Amino acid sequence: MDETYDAVILGTGVTECVLSALLSIEGKKVLHIDRHDFYGGECASLNLTQLYNKFRPGQEPPTDIGRDRDYAIDLIPKFMMANGELTKMLVHTDVTRYLEFKQIAASFVYRDGKIAKVPATEMEAVRSSLMGLFEKRRAKKFFEFLQNWRDDDPATHQTLDLDSDSMEKVFNYFGLEPGTKDFIGHAMALHLDDSYMQRPARETYDRIILYTSSMARYGKSPYIYPLYGLGELPQGFARLSAIYGGTYMLDKPIDEIVVNQETGKFEGVRSGDETVKAAMLIGDPSYFRGGVAGKEKIRETAKVVRAICILKHPIPNTDNSDSVQLIIPQNQVGRKHDIYIAEVSGTHNVCARDIYVAQVSTIVETDKPELELRPGLDLLGPIYDKFVTVSPLEEPVSNGKEDNIFITRSYDATSHFETVVDDIHDVWRRITDGQKLVLKKREDGEGAQIQE
């Protein structure tokens, strides 16, 4: 390990593996280390034995829910937008050749005590239980306005300006009810809270267009998900990085992050009595707890509570769907943060046949985190087994330019990858002195392979 690298990367989460692949493609010499003996870090996929070992050490997994190897249960479940940035990164980097995807069957939202499907087509919108007759007409006009908007054609603007008018003003212009704003803002635009209402409407417009274009791509829902679980994603990017010369070391403890005493800049990483030198360090927050050379590097911004639930049936009231994204907007249950439910099943090769894995997650607001998941858990029907975690949400305290130590963010409570992609862009700007990450379309890129 006495070589010198352009970058050392700590942790094999999706964020770190994408950055590793992108740097390797750019011709940088990358060494990628993880203290675990598996890929994925915080967002790994575990088999039954690993799952029970993690949450209930010493307890044998049950024998009545299939074989160990049938399982690849995500610790942090997230779905990908069919037209989203992560899908573009997969196509751009050609990682799609290592992975196969399956569509998530449907997207639902919780409203007025009931589960309702987020309309996928105009016909579904007309039949939807989400809105009354007059509200459907208003919503139809709102969506037509978004679809027809052209920046260079004032005739499509209806006196509104997406860059200066708030989203609240746009909603009110069409006379939409609070419940409709809820499902559009949280289940389609995927906002984390209601602060977006006061910001310029352009942001929400872009998010809704992403949702509807992703929906149009394959039909039923805007989300896709890799067969055999999310652990396949970092492995795919790791393979690509290796093709371009990246070096991977799993099961390697990190004993010290070495900083130059005089300049304060990062110099290398020590494992045992070996030290490797590099120009910069990128890593997930878990490697920086306790600080570096006496300086705090991360701060905790919140906690996220997650419950992994094994079910023997699909989630009730979701048309027996084999996979579901279900969002409970904060206002519907008197909270400050949404509750997310992501369900996959044996059809995604992540659990045995006729078994379903549903995960419920949210940001912690009280001193009884598990109780906060109750509105989501109550929608699942009988739960065969449940594993609950509370983990910190951490972020870097500085941009990393002073000492060349660039830290990523923890994975939040959302059940989609859009916030992870924002972090990838943010770290890329920081390590390249402000350059935007531009993904050129590959000539031979066919897009993600989707299994019907």
From TrEMBL:
GO cellular component, one term: cytoplasm
Annotated GO biological process: protein transport; small GTPase-mediated signal transduction; vesicle-mediated transport
Recorded superkingdom: Eukaryota
InterPro entries, A to Z: FAD/NAD-bd_sf (IPR036188), GDP_dissociation_inhibitor (IPR018203), RabGDI (IPR000806)
A molecular-function term among this protein's GO annotations: Rab GDP-dissociation inhibitor activity
PANTHER family for the chain: RAB GDP DISSOCIATION INHIBITOR, RAB GDP-DISSOCIATION INHIBITOR
Family the UniProt entry places it in: Belongs to the Rab GDI family.
Record protein name field: Rab GDP dissociation inhibitor
